[in-house]
Amino acid sequence: MASMRCKCGEHLRDDDPEWTLTVFRFGEFDVDEESADLLSRSTDIWRCRNCDRLWAFWQRGSGVVPVEYVNPLKTPIATSVEGTTEESGAS
Ligand SMILES: [Zn+2]
User: Fold this and answer.
1) Rounded to two decimals, what is the model's pTM?
2) Which of 15, 27, 70, 83 has the most CB atoms around it within 10 Å of its CB?
3) Domain of residue 45, residue span
4) 54: closest CA among 37, 69, 76?
5) Distance of CA 89 from the midpoint of ligand 1 (Å)
6) Please, which residues have CB less than 5 A from ligand 1, an ion?
7) Within a domain: 44
C-alpha cells in the first residue's frame, strides 16, 4: 500500500475504495484484455476527502511525483458506496 499526505494534511492511500480512481486513456482501453495487463497501463488518481484535491500519477514507478489539481470550489462532491445519494431521481 502506498500513501502520502495531501497539502491539507489528510492522509491519502492507494487502496481507499471510495477515493482512489483508476483511469484509462480511451485509446488504450480494451475490454478483451486481461485485467492485470490493462491495469498496468492505467493512471492512478487519488482524491482527497477533505479538500477535494486530485493527485494524478501520470507516470508509473518509484519516485514519481503526482501532479496536483485543485478544485476551486474546495467542496468535495458527495459519494456513496451504497449508491444512495441526496438526489431525488426522476421528476
Ligand atoms: Zn487535501
Assistant:
1) 0.74
2) 70
3) 3-69
4) 69
5) 30
6) 6, 8, 10, 48, 50-51, 53
7) yes
- Classify residue 81: in a domain, yes or no: no
Q: How far, in Å, from the CA of 32 to the mean position of ligand 1?
A: 36
Residue 86 is assigned to a structural domain of this protein: no
Residue 28 maps to a domain: yes
Question: pLDDT tens-digit profile of 42-64?
Answer: 899 999 999 999 999 998 888 89
Query: How many domains does the chain divide into?
Result: 1
